[in-house]
Design goal:
Keywords: Antioxidant, Disulfide bond, Oxidoreductase, Peroxidase, Redox-active center. The chain contains eight helices and no strands. By secondary structure, it is mostly helical.
């Protein structure tokens, strides 16, 4: 199991991350598709080749091909929309919010899986990417769909842990490489 390899690679100084990774994945009460779609989308958003490689291996075994593709589409779409909406939010000129975005996001309307799962994945990726407008939008959609706050919080717990594992393991790879390599 690739998840076990990932957990064993976490250094002792970050052992809380190892336990948190176990908690958000192994101890999760989320349905399998929602959980592993979130894990895959967050691994993609983390931009860590190692974390993505390890978690994608397990996600392939846990998700249908349609769900696997939809989780990747959530990560891809949010990579674009999070930058766009975060930038509009950060600009001091509020008039940018009145302009048409003009970006295609058809997959949000037809993700190929349960729409609530896709919203969940989009929320988690938006947490990794730090887009407040997108977080609010996807959180509202999930609440309208009847998802409670405790369940929604699981999305950003998974996002936080996977991002922290990615940062830690990528830093260790750099720090352990010989100088000049």
């Amino acid at each position: 199991m690739a998840l076990d390899a990932l957990k064993s690679a976490i250094p002792d100084y970050a052992k809380d991350l190892r336990r948190n990774l176990e908690s958000v994945i192994d101890d999760s009460e989320l349905p399998q598709q929602r959980l592993w779609g979130t894990v895959l989308a967050c691994a993609i958003a983390s931009r860590s080749p190692r974390v993505l490689r390890e978690l994608a291996e397990d996600a392939t075994a846990k998700l249908s091909p349609e769900a696997y593709t939809a989780a990747k589409s959530a990560a891809a779409t949010m990579a674009m929309t999070n930058v766009f909406h975060r930038t509009r939010h950060l600009l001091s000129d509020p008039e940018y919010k009145n302009l048409r975005a003009g970006l295609r996001t058809n997959v949000l309307g037809h993700p190929g899986v349960d729409r609530t799962d896709h919203e969940f994945w989009c929320l988690a990726v938006s947490a990794v990417n730090g887009c407040g407008d997108c977080l609010d939008s996807h959180e509202r959609a999930l609440r309208r769909a009847g998802v409670d706050r405790g369940t929604i919080q699981e999305a950003f717990k998974i996002a936080a842990v996977i991002q922290a594992v990615a940062v830690t393991l990528d830093a260790e790879a750099v720090l352990s490489a010989p100088l000049g390599a």
